[in-house]
Amino acid sequence: MGQAVAIIGTGQTECGKRTDVSYPELIHEAVSRAFEDSGLVPDDVEAVVSGSMPPAMEGVNNPHLYWTDAMGARGKPLIRIATCGSTGISLAHTGFYHVASGLFDLVLVVGAEKMYEGDPQGTMATVADPFFQRPFLAGAPGIFSLQSNEWAHRYGLDEKRVRMAAAQLSVRNHIDALINPYAHIKVEITLEDVLNSRVIAYPVRILDVCPASDGACALIMASERMVKKLGVKKPAWIRGVGYCGEEAFFGEGDKVAWQSAINAAKTAYKQAGITNPRKELDVAEVYNPFTFQEMLFYECFGFCDFGKACELVEKGVVMRGGDLPCDPSGGTLCTNPIGATGLQRTAEVALQVTEKAGDHQVPGASTGLAHAMGGLDQFNGIMIISNSL
């Protein structure tokens, strides 16, 4: 893996409809907080990794150039990443490799999205292949409602049972978001609210779906040598990374036993020396734009056997206070500035293992998993983060 890499600073913005700031101002907000958290200044970092959705969503070509001053990136190596929903975890991996390779000792990583300034629904509804997929997929909810139905059908899961488990996850995420200062959707809901909310694409209802959010996230990554030199007291060490892609056409891959998700997790676990994720992980920030999909990821990541994810919900394993709390931040379900979302998952796990997560801290968390999914539906990325090497 090259030289050891740690996250030594995180910065997030309050998310939602941020009409109070411009796009660069939003990014500067996150970057400033990351520098404040690390005790560094912009001149200290040697390179910058940035990303968001493709320019069609941004309304600006080469948006990283638009943000240069806000990131303190002028005169420094600067790279832009855009892999749709997985952009944030792609950014985290890119920053990791910048440092692990020995090329740099301090790197700033920035992800952002200002979805209320563009047409995200228009972009997502037309992202699929125009000849075969676009006419019937109807954007992300259409794609992943098909996945949800296929999962339940393959394992013979009772429809009411699956529906109730998904509703429980929606309630859990919304409750957790109430105590996350950066979350977008902050409403207290009940199971009845979820079950009675309108259908978007069966079986997915509106309270099973993530929002469109404005927001930004920034991380500062450092080499082991620099961690020692700076005297960082609580670094969040990156112990393993895994990233995998597969066929872009939805019908060409198995999206239940989802190989890109399975392979990404296996690769990260192997690097981190994890053989039993259910027992060895203390917290997981699973990319969960849809409640049903969150359960499918539990199975792909080895938290339980295939077809058994509902049991994790029913027994409280993945709830706050359970053996493996998932998305204590409220997750993607409650906050989704797409270009930053995967990086938020990474930042949240770093906060958890360094005991800086505030009101949504999981007691005793020392090792966690961060995840994001993207492309059209073919990319999955994992990062294992710990408070020790």
What is the compact description of this entry?
The protein is α/β, with parallel strands linked by helices and 389 residues long.
Explain what this protein looks like in three dimensions.
- With 389 residues, the protein is α/β, with parallel strands linked by helices.
- The chain has a single domain, classed as 3-Layer(aba) Sandwich (Peroxisomal Thiolase, Chain A, domain 1).
- It is 40% helix and 18% strand.
- The strands form two sheets. The protein has a nine-stranded mixed sheet. The protein has a two-stranded antiparallel ribbon with strand order 5-6.
- A hairpin with a 4-residue loop joins strand 10 (367-374) and strand 11.
- Helix 5 packs across helix 17 (338-353) and helix 9 packs across helix 14.
- The model has no long low-confidence stretch (mean pLDDT 95).
CATH domain topology: Peroxisomal Thiolase, Chain A, domain 1
CATH architecture type: 3-Layer(aba) Sandwich
DSSP, total strands: 11
Main structural class: alpha/beta
Rg (C-alpha, Å): 19 Å
Which superfamily, in CATH terms, is the homologous superfamily?
Answer: Thiolase/Chalcone synthase
Low-confidence stretches: none
Mean pLDDT: 95
List keywords for this structure.
389 residues; alpha/beta; Peroxisomal Thiolase, Chain A, domain 1; nine-stranded mixed β-sheet; two-stranded antiparallel ribbon; 17 helices; 11 strands; globular
Describe the SSE topology.
Layout (H helix, E strand, L loop, with lengths): L4 E8 L10 H16 L8 E5 L3 H4 L4 H4 L1 H4 L6 E4 L5 H14 L5 E9 L5 H6 L8 H4 L1 H16 L4 H19 L13 H6 L2 E3 L2 E2 L8 E10 H7 L5 E10 L13 H14 L4 H4 L2 E3 L5 H10 L8 H6 L16 H4 L3 H16 L13 E8 L4 E8 L3
Parallel strand pairs: 2-3, 2-4, 9-10
Antiparallel strand pairs: 1-7, 1-8, 4-7, 5-6, 8-11, 10-11
